[in-house]
Amino acid sequence: MKTVVLTFLLLCVPISLGLRYLVGAPSVWIFIAAVMAVAVLAEWIRRATEQLAERVGPAIGGLLTVSFGSIAELVLALFVLASGETAVVQAQITGSIIGTSLFGLGLAIVIGGATRERQSFNYKRAGLLSTLLILVVIAMLLPAVFNYTGQIAGQGRELRVTDEELSVSVSAVLLLLYVANLIYTLVTHRDVFSAERSLGKAHWSLLRSLAVIIAATVAIAFEAELVSGSLTETAAKLQLSPLFLGVIVLGLVGTIADLFAAAWFAHKDKMGLVLNICVGSAIQVALVVAPLLVIISWFMDHPLSLVFSNPLYLFAIAGTALIVNAIARDGETTWFEGLLLLGVYVLFGLSFFFTGPA
Predict the structure, then answer these.
(1) How far apart are CA 309 and CA 198, in angstroms?
(2) Quick check: helix, strand or coil at residue 57?
(3) Where are the alpha helices (DSSP H) in the chain?
(4) What would you report as the CA-atom Rg of the chain, rounded to the nearest whole angstrom?
(5) What is the dihedral of CA 125, 127, 129, 134, to 10 degrees?
(6) What's residue 342's pLDDT?
C-alpha cells in the first residue's frame, strides 16, 4: 500500500515541470509542487539505499547510507547556492539540524510513548551521537566567534585568514572527523552498533536499487532548480522571509522521509533506530553536507561561509545539541520529553518567523 501511494505521489514531478514550462503558473504553485516532488524523491532514495545496504552488508551499507542519505538536501542546497542565496543555504542547514533533532525526534518520542510508560535505547550509541552534536556546535561557533573577535578588536585587515578560508579549514576537519566516526562505528566497534543497523531483508535487486537512486537524483536536480528559481517570489507572495522558508520548509523537505520512518520505528518501540535516524541525520548535515557545500562553493561564484548571517541560527543549533544531549543521557524517553522537543521547535519557528531577513 505504501509503495502504491509513493508511486502515485511521483506525479508531483511531471506536475511541477508542467506548471513551470507548459502552463507558466504562479511561482507559489511551482514552489509547492517542486518541494513535494523533492520530498517524495528523497523517500525513494532512502528506500533504494536501504535495500542496497541490506544486499552489500553492514559495513559497505553504512557507507552507502552516508553517501546517499543526504543527497536530496545537498542537491537542493547547491541549486539555492548557485542562485546567490547563501543566507538561505545557511538557513536550510540550520533548519535540517533542528528539524530532525527537535521536530522529528520529538514527534517520534510522542508517538512511541503514547501507549508506553517509557522507551529505552542503547545509551552507548546515544552518547556518541550527542557528543558529535556538541562537536557540531563548537565547530559552527568557531568561525562566528573568529569574525566577531576581529570586528570588536578592529583587526579585520590584520587577521591571517578570511572567514571563507577558516570555513574551508573547519569543513576539512569536520569531514575527517566524520570519516573517523565511520571507521569507529563500521569497523572497530561494529559489534556495538550492528544490531541497530539491521532493518530487514532486501526485496529489490542491486540493479533496481542503483537505477532508482540515479533516476531520483537526476529528478531532484530538476526540481531543485524549480525551487531555487521560485523561492524569492514565493516568499514575497506569501509575505514570508526567504530565510523562514529556508529554515522551516527547505530544512525539512530533504529529511521528511526520515521523519516518517522515525515515527514508524518509534511506534514499533525501536528507539535505537529512531535516534540513529533523527540525530544521525542532523549530524550528517553538519559534518558532511555543510562542509561539502563550503568546499564546493569555492569553485562557484557564491562562496559559502560558516559565519552565519543570523546569530539565532547558532543559538538554535547550540540549544538543540544541549537538549538532545540531556534527553539521550539516561537511555530512555517518555512522551513528555517528546512534547518538550516539539515545543522548543515551535518556539524557534516563531522566532525565525518574526525576525524576518537577517
Answers:
(1) 40
(2) coil
(3) 2-9, 12-18, 27-56, 58-69, 71-82, 86-98, 105-113, 123-152, 163-183, 190-197, 206-237, 242-245, 251-253, 256-267, 271-284, 290-297, 311-328, 335-355
(4) 20
(5) -170
(6) 94
For 83, the 3-state DSSP assignment is coil
Q: Which helix (H) or strand (E) holds 208?
A: helix 206-237
CA dist 203 and 198 (Å) reads 14
Three-state DSSP state, 202: coil
Q: What burial letters (b/e) apply to 303-324, b meaning 16+ CB within 10 Å?
A: bbbbbbbbebbbebbbbbbebb
Which residue's entry shows cell 537524483? Answer: 217
Question: In Å, what is the CA distance from 106 to each residue of 102, 191, 338, 339?
Answer: 5, 28, 4, 6
Give one DSSP letter per residue of 269-335, joined into a string. T-HHHHHHHHHHHHHHIIIIIHHHHHHHHTTSSS---SS-S-HHHHHHHHHHHHHHHHHHTTSEE-H
Closest-CA residue to 231 (of 130, 106, 352, 89): 89
d(CA 87, CA 102): 22
* Spatial separation of the C-alpha atoms in residues 70 and 282, rounded to whole Å: 10
Paired residues of 120 in beta bridges = 332
Nearest to 302 by CA among 294, 291, 290: 294
Distance CA 194, CA 189 (A): 9
CA 333/CA 329 separation, integer angstroms = 10
pLDDT tens digits for range 128-185: 778 888 887 888 788 888 777 766 655 545 566 677 778 888 889 888 888 887 787 7
Nearest to 35 by CA among 16, 55, 54, 22: 16
**Which three three-digit cell numbers place residue 219?**
529528478
Q: Indicate if the pLDDT at residue 228 is higher than 60.
A: yes
Q: In whole angstroms, what is the distance from residue 316 CA to residue 96 CA? A: 11
Which cell is 128 given? Answer: 556518541
